[in-house]
Write a structure and sequence with these properties.
heterotetramer, A: mainly beta, Rubrerythrin, domain 2, three-stranded antiparallel beta sheet, two-stranded antiparallel ribbon, B: alpha/beta, Carbamate kinase, eight-stranded mixed beta sheet, four-stranded mixed beta sheet, 7 helices, 26% strand, globular, binds zinc ion, LysW (chains A, D), Lysine biosynthesis protein LysW (chains A, D)
């Protein structure tokens, strides 16, 4: 478990989580990035305009 | 520019016959038309990456569309392969056919300015992760003065990625979309995207299932077509949106592939 | 061409500071002068040859002068390194300095036509042998239309080997002699050959032994100078014979190396 | 020993001779190239304008 930096809800993190993985906070629905592991640190994921084919 | 101007994109795909394409470019030039030849080089990139021990990796977006993962080592390989191997071979071939070619990348004359995104979302082992060292980007601006001067002087520009970003660093961009962006910016008459298939296929495994025309949806991923062709259709859509009236996706494996495409072979994208 | 035109050759030698050279080129361009920058890339060639497992070999002529043995594998490495690594880095650097550069090889627009000799004599283990797969040659003709058009439009051409032979195949040529041939063909005002030494040294081990002027003998190998410098002097002689009035060999390792050379630093070759 | 293709004099070839080596014929003073080994075959060496610095 780790705290959401936006709403401070607890966010459950799987044991197999990896650095830079995106998880969604069930409380505020924001997308969060795992920016550190053991202990897990979450940050608001940057908004990215998705455009593939690069 | 009063002469008929065609932008041709060739692969990339080792199945595409670059000698035949060069011969056809020379034919068009000799009858007084202007051509800009845009090239990729996936075969040479793969060969050189293998020799240099740089792993080829793919980013898969959450929607399933995939793209090359251009980390710094792969960016070096991409530029080596395109500017240092594929392009000199095309320029020498065109020269041998009496078509005076000039090899360029998007760096030259600040031709292709790109935005590199600081991070992209990708699927890795079923998880969505942010990838921050991808040196791929999308074209943000095109300068045409260099190309226009060369075309006026009768040269055949041979253009490929990389583009240059706002920090004057090379950025990999998709060559089909380079071709589309140049067609729009130059106000060219026609865009021909050559590929290793007869055109856009309804069934990727059946070469007889070609659409003679294909209406690309106005937004989102084109449906029911595989990876490389989906990107060609995105490029075609960008050209159409920019006012290009003739956009064809056609077979690059046949003799006189450009002439055939201009005569109606392949798929007209609308 | 009415603007002052300077042809600058930079190494090659990893000791030479290409950032400083690019900054100085941009300075000249911004004060209204024209520059053609010719580059080699021996450091990058060595690095890439090592990575690709291509041995670097040297041909030693019976008179003791040595040159790169450019077999087909090494020709590929030379073109990869010059066109695919050194040149894009220089073009991007100049672009970042506000000098719109265009990277070219001798293939582009048929600029540098070379003769490849079918065989050269070389010393191997004390014996004279004929080497038939050397893809090195000498410049036979220069076309200036491409360069002149680019210079008129305000671009900075960035030029390197290879040249193209009569069969439209790439041929390695010496970059110092490329610079000399372009200076002559363009009718440029000045040739500056930058190197990893203060100028022409009387004693190669003593940087204080620089000749401020050096009269190169009208034929034959320049006496009492080591390999790389001997070739620069041959190039300088070719420029002088072609009517160039200002030929300098100067230090490429210092800040503002071109401005310093033009202000009198280094060796004036006569 | 091998015959000179120009003057048919015998030319002595060392045991360590290598392919494409240039030897001079003592009879006619022509430069000869060893174009095959065991048996040795000699051919008139091409005239080449020497120009180094390439
Ligand atoms: Zn939350
Ligand atoms: Zn004889």
């Amino acid at each position: 478990m780790s705290d959401c930096p936006q709403c401070t809800d607890e966010v459950s993190i799987s044991d197999s989580a990896r650095l830079n993985e995106i998880v969604e906070c069930a409380g505020c629905r924001n997308e969060l990035e795992i920016v550190a592991l053991s202990p897990t640190v979450l940050a608001l994921a940057p908004e990215i305009e998705e455009d593939w084919g690069e | 520019m009063t002469r008929l101007l065609t932008v041709v994109k060739c692969g990339g795909n080792p199945a595409v016959d670059s000698r035949g394409i060069c011969a056809d470019v020379a034919r068009l030039v000799h009858r007084g038309e202007s051509v800009v030849l845009v090239h990729g080089g996936s075969g040479e990139i793969a060969r050189l990456a293998g020799k240099l021990g740089v792993p080829q990796r793919t980013l898969v977006a959450p929607d399933g569309v995939s793209a090359r993962y251009t980390d710094p080592a792969m960016l070096e390989v991409v530029v080596l392969a395109l500017a240092g191997a594929v392009k000199p071979a095309i320029v020498a071939a065109l020269s041998g056919l009496g078509a005076p070619a000039v090899g360029l990348t998007g760096l030259d004359g600040g031709m292709l300015r790109a935005r590199r995104k600081p991070a992209v979302r990708a699927m890795v082992d079923g998880r969505t992760v942010l990838v921050r060292d991808n040196h791929g980007g999308q074209i943000a601006a095109v300068r045409t003065d260099l190309l226009e001067g060369l075309l006026r002087s009768g040269f055949v520009p041979v253009v490929s990625p990389p583009a240059i970003n706002e920090h004057d660093q090379p950025v990999n961009v998709n060559a089909d979309r380079v071709a589309a962006a140049l067609t729009v910016a130059l106000g060219a008459d026609r865009l021909v995207l050559l590929t290793g298939a007869p055109g856009v296929l309804a069934d990727a495994g059946d070469e007889t299932s070609m659409h003679s025309t294909y209406a690309v949806p106005p937004a989102g991923a084109p449906g029911s077509v595989a990876g490389g062709m989906a990107l060609k259709l995105v490029a075609a859509r960008e050209a159409l949106a920019g006012g290009v009236t003739s956009v064809r996706i056609a077979d690059g494996r046949v003799p006189e592939p450009i002439s055939r495409a201009l005569a109606g072979a392949g798929t007209t994208v609308t």
